[in-house]
Amino acid sequence: MVVYNFSAGPAVLPGPVLKKAQEELLDYQGSEMSVMEMSHRSSLFEEIIADAEKLLRELMEIPKNYRVLFLQGGASLQFSALPLNLAQNKKALYVNTGSWSKKAIAAAQKIENVETKVIASSEDKNFTYIPEITQDLIDEDAAYLHITTNETIGGICYQEIPDAGDVPIVADMSSNILSNDYQVSDFGVIYAGAQKNIGPAGLTVVVIREDLLNEASLFAPMLDYRLQADSHSMYNTPPTFSIYMAKLVFEWLQDLGGVPQILQENQKKAGLLYEAIDRSPLFHSPVNKQDRSLTNVPFLTTSSQLDKEFIYAAQKQGLENLKGHRSVGGMRASLYNAFPMVGVRKLVDFMEEFEKAHG
Ligand code: PMP
User: Fold this and answer.
1) 100 is in an annotated binding site
2) Whole-angstrom Cα distance, residue 16 to residue 357?
3) Could you check whether the bond before residue 10 is cis, i.e. omega within 30 degrees of 0?
4) Which helix (H) or strand (E) holds 51?
5) Which residues 6+ apart lie within 8 Å of 258 measured at CB?
6) pLDDT at position 200, please?
7) Where does L-glutamate bind (predicted)?
8) pLDDT digits over 240-258, tens only?
9) Which numbered atom of ligand 1 lies nearest the CA of 173?
10) CB atoms near residue 183 (< 10 Å)
11) What is the pLDDT of residues 184-197, one digit of tens each?
12) CATH class of 15-255
């Protein structure tokens, strides 16, 4: 049976990438070593990390005055690293759009000399929309404005990036980096855990505008952006194999035509599923139409019991990991770049069948 993996992360990787990694697993380019066995200071690995950065720069059209860091600790560590690096003795503004924003806010609140302020929230409607951000909400002296471009659990997404004037926007882009065609120059910092659209877990990508690198050194070297940038992400041993896998994913994406091409594919995939949900008498989407995510699509039946039955029956058809996050229930289909259109068709067909049986 063909399995379609709707996991929210770690998530499906492109088949050709896994194949290539398999081919090179025991002997990387005639070295008779696996990438896993190589010194991170070897010339072969230096080339891998340099290629990974070059490809990411091309794919995201990252301007020259931004640094790319390959770090560890997940997006979650960045929740603390950001205020520590950027907002000491300053104000840090946040938009609260759901579970991941909340975690970012909670981490910043723990830092004593940072004043954390939530300037907008969609909590009033259970995080089913993106609140409007107007200039009058933004304190001009703030160190940054933090947004979560795509809420992986709630399935809401910024279609447009707000204008914060001179206050840099810092974005958790974990679940839609390289899926949407955002302009890097709209942001001061972008960060993302790799395990959805980039590669295996263990790697965190940070893209930071050079002038935002901290002046003073931090008490914890591993959290220090300037130190990490000056060391070219080699202050300690970086997650070498994950970086290698990311490089292969970037090559795959570039061969497909890059972000504009994959965005079109993503729109088609998500479009097909949203259409099926919207015309269904059984399924519905909890999310405001304009703010729907392309990469994470939550949906529900009419009862939690029926949701359970659907998830169970879908799994038997090879439609795996459709269970919604434990905090919200229902179903969630994650449709990252590597998820194939044929899997969405199979899901939509199965939804129709299930509907007939339970209508
Ligand atoms: N932010 C978002 C939007 C996420 O989806 C996730 C992971 N699901 C995280 C942060 C946390 O990432 P990590 O597990 O890499 O710390």
Assistant:
1) yes
2) 37
3) yes
4) helix 43-60
5) 58, 59
6) 98
7) 41
8) 999 999 999 999 999 999 9
9) 3
10) 10
11) 999 999 999 999 99
12) alpha beta
pTM over cut 0.95: yes
List the residue whose alpha carbon is closest to atom 9 of ligand 1: 75
Residue nearest atom 14 in ligand 1 by C-alpha distance: 74
Pocket of ligand 1 (CB under 6 A): 9, 74-76, 100, 148, 152, 172, 174-175, 193
Tell me if ipTM is over 0.95: yes
What is the residue extent of each domain of the chain? 15-255, 257-358
Nearest alpha carbon to residue 153 among 197, 108, 102: 102
Q: What is the mean pLDDT of residues 161-179?
A: 98
CATH H-level, domain 257-358: superfamily? Aspartate Aminotransferase, domain 1 (3.90.1150.10)
Ligand 1 centroid vs 100 CA: distance in angstroms?
A: 7
Of 19, 91, 141, 172, the catalytic one is 172
> Is 172 among the catalytic positions?
yes
- 65 annotated ligand binder: no
Orientation angle between helical segments 240-256 and 43-60, nearest 10 degrees: 40
The SS3 call for residue 301 is coil
